[in-house]
Amino acid sequence: MNHRAQSLESFEILTGAEASPVILHVPHSSRAIPESVRRGIHLSDPALERELDHITDAHTAEIAAAAAAACAVTPWRFVNGLSRLVIDPERFPDEREEMTAVGMGAVYTHSTHRERLRPEGFDVRPLLDRYFHPYAHAMTRAVEDRLEAAGRAVIIDVHSYPTARLPYELHGDGHRPPICLGTDAFHTPAGLLAAAGKAFAGFGGTGLDSPFSGTYVPLKHYGKDDRVGALMVEIRRDTYMSEPGGPAGPGLAALAAALTELVDDLLP
Asked: How far apart are CA 262 and CA 56, in angstroms?
């Protein structure tokens, strides 16, 4: 892969050190929606802005960028440049996706508050073809590049979540710790989980798989290649920003430093 930032229409791959196995994946930080996609969304402009306040993992791209800049060996970054209201790259694109039950599969038909987002019978295939599949292909290629160069790949998903449960959450009645670590039985080794627990210990507690669980791994490798490690880091938003959708506070720098510590701990 070329040693420069690769700017693509809907996502950006920012080059790290060739020896680094780590990819910081930031899928939900953007509010950008192309006009052609906006025309298919029912909400008024003010209602859409409110929805973006709730659904966007605000400032997570900044956290990942600050962490990467401070790492001893620079990790790679894969950053979605579009809102998850265009497509959600972390959903299964088929019947395996449980969030389809609330209208929030790979293409959302409903909002965080269960309002109709797109019309009944909306054809999701053009959005999948235009945005979802190219994203998935590029992420697969990024993981393949790390396997070829470093012999392993470690995907760290950088997310955030609201302090109070939103109506769309299927499992939102559980614990909402300052840091939720989402895991996968096959792709999250004990050492990765221990390193994350240590790095984020100073924020008032970490929890496992509540209120959100699982990790993102490209389907080519999912459940098949144990050289691909993965961990989802869900940051409760009151630790670093004003909710919903407000500015970042001093917690952002501390979280970036913790993420730096985690990445540095993953290297020999």
From this structure: 24
- DSSP 8-state code for residue 210: S
Classify residue 132 by its DSSP letter. Answer: I
- The helix (H) or strand (E) run that includes residue 175 is none
Residue 115 has pLDDT above 50, yes or no: yes
Instruction: Report whether the peptide linkage leading into residue 244 is cis, meaning its omega lies within 30 degrees of zero.
Output: yes
Spatial distance between the Cα atoms of 220 and 217, rounded to a whole number of angstroms: 8
Q: Give residue-wise pLDDT tens across range 212-265.
A: 999 999 999 999 999 999 999 999 999 999 999 999 999 999 999 999 999 999
The pLDDT value recorded for residue 108 is 96
β-pairing, 206-208 vs 76-80, is unpaired
Tell me what pLDDT residue 9 has: 65
Measured CA to CA, the distance from residue 8 to residue 22 in angstroms comes to 20
CA distance 267 to 75: 10
Whole-angstrom CA distances from 129 to 16, 71, 86, 223 are 28, 36, 12, 24
In this structure, how many other beta carbons lie within 10 angstroms of the beta carbon of residue 17?
17
Helix (H) or strand (E) holding 117, with range, is none
Q: Would you say 188 and 214 are in contact if contact means Cβ atoms under 8 Å apart? A: no
Do the beta carbons of residue 128 and residue 204 sit within 8 Å? no
pLDDT at 8 over 50: no
